[in-house]
Every structure is written in C-alpha cells, then in structure tokens.
User: Fold these one by one.
Assistant:
Number 1:
Amino acid sequence: GRRVQARIRGPMVKRERLGRVGTTDVIFWRSPARTPALDGLVVPEDTYLLLHAATDALDADASPLDLWAALERAARAEKQPLGSVIIEDGARRGVTYIARVVVYDFDGEPICHPETVRAGLADALSELVRRGCDTLGVSLHGPMRGGLSREAVLEALNEIVVRLDVASPRTLYLLEQEEGASEPGPGA
C-alpha cells in the first residue's frame, strides 16, 4: 500500500493535503479554531476514562467544581481494556459520533503500545464507516508523553485505511494540536 507521511513546515501550516490512500483523501489539519465539518471524531482515551472526563468538563459554563466532579466519577469508573473502543453520541461536539479509543494506560510503562493503537484505530474507523460516516477526524493517537512517534501513528493509519479499502471513509482529517493549544474539536 501507499505510505502517508506528513511534513510539517512550521506552526503556520494549518491544512496540508497529504494525498490519497485507496479511495480516501488524507488531509493534515493542525490546530485551527474550527475543524472541518466531520461525521465522526476519533480521540484517544486512557483506561480510566480520565481524558474523557477532563475534556467533557471543559465547556464554557463548567466551573472548577464541575471538572472535579467529572474527574471523581471517572476515578470510580471500571478500568477499560487497552484497545477497546467506546462509541458515543457526538452532538455536543458537533459530530454524529465520537469514538474513544483506549490507547493509554498511565499505570504501565510505556503508557502506549503500537499494536494497541493499530487495533483500536482499526476497530474505531471500521465501526464509524459502518455507521455511515464519510468524513472522519482522527486526533493523532500515541504521541502523548512519548508513547509513539507521529510517523508510527501515520504508518498505522495508512495500513488501516488500505485494509478498509471499499469500506473506507471519503475524507480523513488528521487532527493535531499545536503546543499549548486546547484539544481540537468540531465547533470549537
């Protein structure tokens, strides 16, 4: 299959068409105020769903107490297995679905493994396409705290999209935040 590689030319690069993988257009999208119109969003998650709790509590009306309560609920949550995918309604974030892929285990070292990222991303993309999502945004999984290199994540996405072939999304946006930026999300 063809390889997809991003070449970042500096912080001013906001959108870069990387090419096609099979029938899928791949576009690198870096930390804009608004992401493109998406049907589905794939985001990384940790085994205790703390990332989910923190990002869900970060709305304009959330108080510090709201964030604390969300983190407390997450702390009591059952630990999710690495590689699992949680599909939820994405209306609050401006998309049809959000797929949370459990790729981080903060109890382990390293916190992220390539095979977990590959399996989770493959399951998430497959399920979102099965649900009719043509335009997907993928928050780059793995680079947090040195878990995986950006190149390893792009290689995994390339392999997954090639395997999906006919059942692949029409457009795949690779979403990456700039240093110090908040989490990318539709309608932000």
Number 2:
Amino acid sequence: MENSPLTIKYIPEAQDYVRASRALAKKSTSFVIMAVLLLLAMAAAAVILLLPSVGEESWDNIALILLVVGVFYIIYFFAVIPWQLRRAYKKNEHLQVERQFTLNEERIGIRVGNDGTELLLDKLEKVVQDDDLYLLVYKDNQKLYFFIPERAFTEEATEEAFLSYLKENSITLE
C-alpha cells in the first residue's frame, strides 16, 4: 500500500450485527466445544428415549432435560439472539450511523457518526473472514470487535486493497 490511507465507509444494517455475532461465536473455541458437547448429549438423549432397552429407566428424565436444554439453546442462538440484536438496532440510533475506518501504516482511525478514535495497528490481533463480512479483533486492555461488511468495499476502497493492507502489516486473516 502506498502512503495514502485506505478509507472504508458504510452504514451498518441490523443483519450485520447478527452476522458479526455468529462469526464471533464460530471462532470462539469455548462456544464450539460447548455446541459439540450439547449436540452429542442431545443425540445420546434421543437414543435413550427412542430405544428403551438402552440405559436404565432412571435416565429418561435426564435425557428429556438434555433434549429440552438443547432445543432451547438452538432456539436461543438462531432466533432469540438475532431478534434481540435487531430490536437493539432499531432502538439505538448509534448502531445505525455511518462507520468509517481509515487504515494507515501505524494506526486505524475509526469514526462512528461524529465520534472517533485511533487504535494502534500493532494491537490488531487478527481479522476473521466469515461469509460476507470481516471481523476485526483488537486487543489492548480489553478485546474490542469491529466488523466491516463486504458491501463496504467500493471502487474507492476495494477488498483487494484491504487484504493487501492486512498482508503488508502481517495481520492474521482467519
């Protein structure tokens, strides 16, 4: 990248927040482990309930509870969380204002509406690519997450320039 900064602008949509939360969950080791364990427990519970000859009769209640918890978890992840995020988006104007990322050699300038800040580039831990967005994971005193949907890449700020910027600055892309 030349000396000129790369500027990316977009106005977030409600679905962007849903996609970002799912991308974050899929990249979280603890979330993936918990999901796999829950699915295995649900499968075992279904076998216990459908085949009475497997296990003891006292296991039926535990199996039923595991199935109910599993179904609740699936409904919560795929329906409740998206509903909550869309509702928060509608109620909070701050979530709806334009975002602008200015990427240069040492810093990332972030402007949300009229408010802005600059973050040191060396604290950008990684960038996660998921479906049609990029999730930027920044870690200083705490982890901060920013997302850039693919639709933000226009002729002025292309996706290739963004990927080149990451590569030039040795930022991990997952």
Number 3:
Amino acid sequence: MPSYNFSPIGSALQTQAVAASATKISTSNTIPGGARYAEGFVRTASIVETRDGTTPTATKGTEWDAGDIILLRSRREITNFQAIEKTAGSAETIDWQFYNRAPN
C-alpha cells in the first residue's frame, strides 16, 4: 500500500485560454501551491507547447490536438508550461486538474 495519497487538489480544476501569443498557466491565481503534477485536456483545436521556459511557435514545440491529454510531471514543468494556438483565431482552451504529487 502506498505511503502517500495521489489525489486531485480540491477546487483546483482550472481553464487556461490559449491564444496566438504564448500564454502560461497563471502562477498567482491558477496553480495551487501544493501542485506537483497536472493533467490538461485540450478542448477544441490544436496547440503547440513548451515546458522548458522557451516561447513556443507554430513550428517549435510539441503539438497537441483537440481531445489530447497533456501530462506535466513536476512543479517546474507546470510553472514553465507555455502554449499557443497552432492556427491563429481558433480560441483554444486547456482544462487543468492539479494533483499533490505524481503517480508512481
């Protein structure tokens, strides 16, 4: 039996709007202090993301399509995550659920 709990942080389901310019998950209002793992659901259109602090472009970063699940496995990945729309004007969103720690 695990010696710790892997569970969502209460009231931590948040939505990130993704636009033509790079956006981060807000560190002041959105990311819970105890978040060490996050799962993001890409809603309606493709996005491109980076998690190393560099700014993504339509041709630089990892592409995710609508319906994909993005996993961020550390606090560093969560705070460095940035995303842009693959196609300008698609009004994309990512729904994030934050967890107290990563699963084994």
